[in-house]
Structure formats: structure tokens, C-alpha cells
Design brief:
Helix content: 10-25%
CATH architecture: 3-Layer(aba) Sandwich
Distance between the termini: 46 Å
Radius of gyration: 18 Å
CATH topology: Trna Endonuclease, Chain: A, domain 1
Strand order of the largest sheet: 3-4-5-7-8-11
Structural class: alpha+beta
Largest sheet: 6 strands, mixed
């Protein structure tokens, strides 16, 4: 792996966001390294499908009735709408590579206006895209998001003068405000409460 490739991988692990992951190594051989910065949108979709796969498997395991809605436009702060056993959740997804050092995420304030809005911050293996632990930010079913604070986010890129403009509709929320969950079963409980089926 070249010095440039090593540096980009170091940045990815420090930043830890799916949008920023520049490169991963898919196997032991360096020849299998692939550049993925230009495929960030595709990676986000892969992770979204992975998330839906394990979540819906968990709900089926619990014999819970559920429905998934996916919007084509992300203008209201959520990526998915999932209903299970009468509980409706508007979910914003975030992603971080395993071992990433990202200390905070930007959250759209419109999510706080939604019924049972929540944020799921996933970790994933950059070589296999398998999901690991989760970070959770949300209230009990039927309750709104906790307060997001007043730290306004800024655009990731500066203007011609190098100034990064503020994003008034987004807030920076630190990782410490999230609850860490080890399993999809724990996450399903936070999302929908204990649902019928196999005992938890």
C-alpha cells in the first residue's frame, strides 16, 4: 500500500463516517485494496440494506408485524420510516467504521418534529460491510428526540474564501449523548419496545 493510500485509510478511521471513508482493504493481499471515496452513496445504500436486513429478521424472529417505507428525497431528516406493532419510527442513519474516532455527528433538526424520531449510528467492518455495535439516540416509543443542543453544524467544504458556512437546520451532537448497544435485539427494544414473540 502506498503512502498516499495509507494516509487516506488513516483519515477514514479517524473521521469514521460513511460519507468520508476513502479506502478499505478487502483482503490480506494489497492488490485487493479498493478506492471507495467515489462510491460513498453506494456504500450508504449497502449499509442501509444491511441494517434493514438484520432489523427485519429480528422483527420476524419476534413474530412482529412491520412495514418499511423509504423516501427518495432526504429533506426531513430521516432515511427510513419503520412501523412495528403500531409503533412508527422515523430513523436517521449514521455510519462509522469500526475503530473510528469520530466524536460527533450532525443531525437535522426536522427529525425532532417527527413522531418518535431517532438516530441510529452504526459501526461497520470496512472490508466486509458487516455491521457491529450501534449507538442510539431517541426517546421511548411515542416520544420525541432528546434535545439536540445549540451547536450549529457547518458545511464540510468552504466557499471561495475558505469559510465554512453554517447549516442552521443541523446540530452537532456528541457521541457521549448516544447510548451504546451491542446487539440488534437491544436496538429493536429501543425502537419499538419489547414486542411479542420469543422472550427477550
Amino acid at each position: 500500500m502506498s503512502r498516499e493510500q495509507s494516509e487516506r485509510l488513516r483519515v477514514a478511521r479517524n473521521e469514521g463516517d460513511a460519507n468520508l471513508t476513502p479506502e478499505v482493504q478487502t483482503g490480506a493481499a494489497e492488490s485487493k485494496s479498493v478506492a471507495i471515496s467515489h462510491r460513498s452513496s453506494a456504500i450508504e445504500k449497502v449499509l442501509e440494506y444491511q441494517f434493514l436486513s438484520i432489523l427485519t429478521r429480528e422483527l420476524m424472529h419476534r413474530d412482529a408485524e412491520f412495514e418499511v417505507l423509504r423516501g427518495d428525497v432526504d429533506g426531513s431528516g430521516h432515511d427510513l420510516v419503520v412501523e412495528a406493532e403500531g409503533v412508527l419510527r422515523y430513523v436517521q442513519l449514521k455510519a462509522m467504521v469500526k475503530g473510528g474516532k469520530r466524536a460527533n455527528v450532525s443531525i437535522n433538526t426536522k427529525l425532532a418534529r417527527k413522531s418518535s424520531g431517532c438516530v441510529v449510528w452504526m459501526t461497520y467492518d470496512p472490508g466486509t460491510f458487516e455491521l457491529g455495535s450501534f449507538r442510539w439516540l431517541g426517546g421511548a416509543p411515542g416520544e420525541p428526540l432528546p434535545a439536540l443542543g445549540d451547536r450549529i453544524a457547518k458545511h464540510s467544504k468552504g466557499n471561495a474564501a475558505g469559510i465554512k458556512a453554517e447549516r442552521p437546520g443541523h446540530r452537532i451532537v456528541p457521541a457521549g449523548q448516544f447510548e451504546t448497544l451491542a446487539t440488534i435485539s437491544e436496538l429493536a427494544d429501543r425502537l419499538f419496545g419489547p414486542v411479542k414473540g420469543i422472550a427477550q
